[in-house]
């Protein structure tokens, strides 16, 4: 059998990067990020279409007869719709969340199909999914940590300016506007990474023979951390919060992240 494992990994990589690009465009209305995401998703569509045509023309089988084949065709439809909507209309909300659903369904299809078709390589792919889940979660925590540091620097700078403490430390902390924006950018990068990590973790729990606890403290805590930072973005982008108020909220959000990592992690049945 041909080694399709690397193709599956490539599809997931391109889809994940596309999802990050669409998220940045969704939050910032960034046309460059939108274009990059569009072409990455187009590459996913080409690979999907190749497999689809192989099934139809070579194997004379339309992949809709089983649940998992139907998932693949469903994902192809979602990607196709997403590309058309992105090209002809400007509905960022719809495009982003369509791709979130499509990415989740694609993960379920590929991981399940890999286990059935690729045997040992399929098990390896599922195990690698867990490694990527943990790596992306930790990477997102790194961005949230940077965001927290920028917020603390902002609050220190703000306090020194209020107290009119003009010294070398004041200038070494940096400009208030840049600190505020840097904190915001770090959250924008961290949120989609954590979202993808959670999707990978849920998919791994679905296809893995190991016991998966939906009500595990770390699982619920991760969803809550994502929710807290989504609220941060809502306050920042929609409500227009900036400066001291959003920096305080961001600092509180990071404290909750630490509680999730250390306390909820110690209470977890299967997380470290």
Automatic annotation (TrEMBL):
Protein encoded by which gene: ccsA
A Pfam family assignment: Cytochrom_C_asm
Identification of the protein by name: Cytochrome c biogenesis protein CcsA
Domain Cytochrome c assembly protein: from-to ranges: 66-268
Source taxon at top rank: Bacteria
Residue stretches spanning the membrane: 6-24, 36-58, 70-86, 93-110, 130-156, 184-207, 219-238, 245-267
Alphabetized UniProt keyword annotations: Membrane, Transmembrane, Transmembrane helix
Cellular component aspect of the GO annotation: plasma membrane
Bilayer disposition of the protein: Multi-pass membrane protein
Gene Ontology terms, MF aspect: heme binding
Localization in the cell: Membrane
Protein's GO biological process: cytochrome complex assembly
Entry-linked InterPro entries: Cyt_c_assembly, Cyt_c_biogenesis_CcsA/CcmC
